[in-house]
Specification:
This protein is of the alpha/beta class. Helix content is about 40%, strand content about 15%. The relative contact order is 0.14. Zinc ion (ZN) binds next to loops.
Length: about 250
């Protein structure tokens, strides 16, 4: 069994053939965490998780959706579902312009507080903002969460030094199809397998070699193969170790 730790199967891109995509992944014994980006997509992620075995959900307000107010009561109510295993995706994005840095930070801090309150790990989106993110996570320790269960920096594309800082702070690094566009070979080679998670971020970030433009969970194998080559171990070892990491982090 393999867990896709970051998918968006609730998105419109899968409306026409969601059942077939799910059938294909279940046939390969793949489970997933569907991640919300807004209140609406968080609700849809929870509904999908309630419907299928081996499906889980994360709920949160994405920094590029920060125009939407963060209604903590609604997210708290959604978290009542046993299928909600994380708060995310939340974070900072100073790449997409224009952005309101203070507003993004405020909403991120409110969601970190919710994660603390609910004892849930966080799924962090961080783009062009790693230094600010590391500073926040240093000062804002997720103290109630067990060591190493703080969360994951999803779709990591930072430097080796930043990777090491996140690992020191108790975070995993989420590795997906972006590694075919962005060279983070050194980060993958130097970070212990025990701190890596596999993800698709589907429908986005399709790995090289996949037969379709739209990404889906079964295409994780291309990412797993590349990590195996870089670390000079078998793909099976990458799949089993990262799945164990995902189970530990999300308690599934
Ligand atoms: Zn995502």
């Amino acid at each position: 069994m393999i867990i896709d730790t970051h998918s968006h199967l609730q998105f419109d891109a899968f409306d026409a053939d969601r059942d077939q995509v799910i059938k294909r992944m279940l046939a390969e014994n793949i489970q997933c965490i569907n991640v919300g980006c807004s209140l609406d997509s968080s609700k849809k992620a929870v509904a999908l998780a309630e419907k299928h075995e081996g499906f889980y959900a994360a709920i949160g307000l994405h920094p590029t959706d920060a125009g939407e107010p963060f209604d903590v009561a609604q997210y708290r109510a959604l978290a009542q579902s046993k299928k909600v295993v994380a708060i995310g995706e939340i974070g900072l994005d100073f790449f997409h312009k224009p952005y309101d840095e203070q507003k993004q930070k405020d909403i991120f801090l409110q969601q970190l507080a919710l994660a603390e309150e609910l004892n849930l790990p966080v799924i962090i989106h961080c783009r062009a903002a790693h230094e600010q993110m590391i500073e926040i996570l240093r000062n804002q320790k997720l103290a109630r969460l067990p060591a190493g269960r703080q969360g994951v920096i999803h779709c990591f594309t930072g430097t080796l030094e930043q990777a090491q800082k996140y690992v020191e702070l108790g975070f995993y690094l989420g590795i997906g199809g972006i590694i075919f566009k962005f060279n983070i070979d050194k980060v993958i080679q130097e970070t212990p397998l025990a701190k890596l998670l596999i993800e698709t971020d589907c429908p986005f970030l399709t790995p090289a070699g996949a037969p379709e433009k739209r990404n889906e969970p079964i295409f994780m194998k291309y990412t797993i193969e590349k990590i195996a080559q870089l670390k000079n171990i078998s793909p099976e070892m990458v799949a089993s170790a990262t799945t164990e990491n995902a189970k530990k982090l999300f308690g599934v």
